[in-house]
UniProtKB/TrEMBL annotation:
InterPro entries: CCR4/nocturin_mRNA_transcr (IPR050410), Endo/exonu/phosph_ase_sf (IPR036691), Endo/exonuclease/phosphatase (IPR005135). It holds the Pfam family Exo_endo_phos. Residues 107-465 form the Endonuclease/exonuclease/phosphatase domain. This is Endonuclease/exonuclease/phosphatase domain-containing protein.
Amino acid sequence: MMKLVGFPFPEGGFSRNGRLMKRLCQQHRSLSSFLPSVLGSSRRGSFRRMSSPEAKDPFCQAKLAIDELIRRYNSQLSMCESVRRWRTLPTAPRRDPGDVQFTLMCYNILAQDLLEMHGDLYDRHDSVALSWPHRYDRLMAEINLVRPDILCLQELQDDHREQFSNGLANFNYGVLYKKRTGDKPDGCAIFFRRDLFELVDYQDVEYYQPSVKLLDRENVALIAKLQVKGNPTQRLVVATTHLLYNPRRQDVRLAQVQVLLAELDRLAFSGRFANGTPKYTPSIVCGDFNLQPYSAPYMLMTTGYLQYDTLSAKTLEPHGPGSPLGRVLLPPSLGITDDCRHENLTDRANQDDIRATRLYNSQCRQPRPPQTGEPTEPFCQGTLRHHLKYASAYRHNIGEGNQEASTFQRDWITVDYLFYSKHQHTGGKAFTESDLKLVSVYGLPTVRQAREIYAIPNMYFGSDHFALAGRFLLKPAGTATAAKPTSEESKL
């Protein structure tokens, strides 16, 4: 059986009910406080109906409820052991001298305040699995199991930051954090091992932009530029984000992705090729995007091109309800072009200054620089493109009967992603492979497998999302080889 560091239950599982009862009672301080919690789950329908005469006895009810927890836990553990394994890619490169191998983990950990604020969403869950002490134990157990060199979190509650930092002290992490704007209790965080990486630069991104129609939500992103300790030529840009949830507002998510890509273009820019084409530091973008594979924003991320003007407004479907979205997505006054770049930075030759952007940030409290003269770059032409060349680390398996799932939203679906810059655009239709290589991924369950474990969070999994993780090689700068462009890349 897999050993879990920090796992709160006996390594032998739940075969010893007495030890399980002891652990649960310790968590709930006393049996008198534990029984109502377990029995409350049964009354809400979380457990099978118990109709025998013996079931009228509270202790008998508790035993039956615990037996059900045991059954579910065994199913959850079985799924974890068979599915949540590292899977090496058939095309994984060998590790050469000078390569740096690292593991990146991405996890929406479900802020406890949000869980309690929206308790109706968890009515059918085992209430004993919803307490923060239990969930924190399970979250830490999985993080310790994966042992990431870079950890990207979404929904990290502001008043839980110190607890997480203390719980992960043995990793010697440096920490960046960006709380959602407004009165939201949570935000995004990037943890990185200080014995492996040094922080070069970072930027927090606020998607709320005053007076911009599609950017009126309080979601955020966080971007860090890192360099390998002892080798400043080996650099990596890491970004994590949590986009708007509302399933009916794909247009808002597309606008948020355009802002994110512009900031990534700014932070990852590293110079130009001889023909003038921009060079970029390898990058990884991960988080809870709240959109499904092959939707419009996903296609922009992975193909570098999207024609959106003919798509239905809000849903961005080719033949969706309502009128077309039209050509205006973000106003030219924001200074972000259809190439997903900041207008004032398109002709740069070296690293830029944040003051060249027109994005509002509540921490800077500076007025947005005014637009001067007529726009010289493409705006509002109905198409978006970029040159950052992202690929998804996961396959998704759409339409194959074994689609991967990262969370439950009316059904098991994928909304969490780990994108990495697989290629570097070198001009025209030419591409090279990036210095960043994906070696293996931490397996996700299929929809069918996820249905067998009932619901998350539960006694084994601490969040309502499954964690993503990838193992990468970062090769010395300039060792990339030519790559054949795909049909989508040919549009650039």
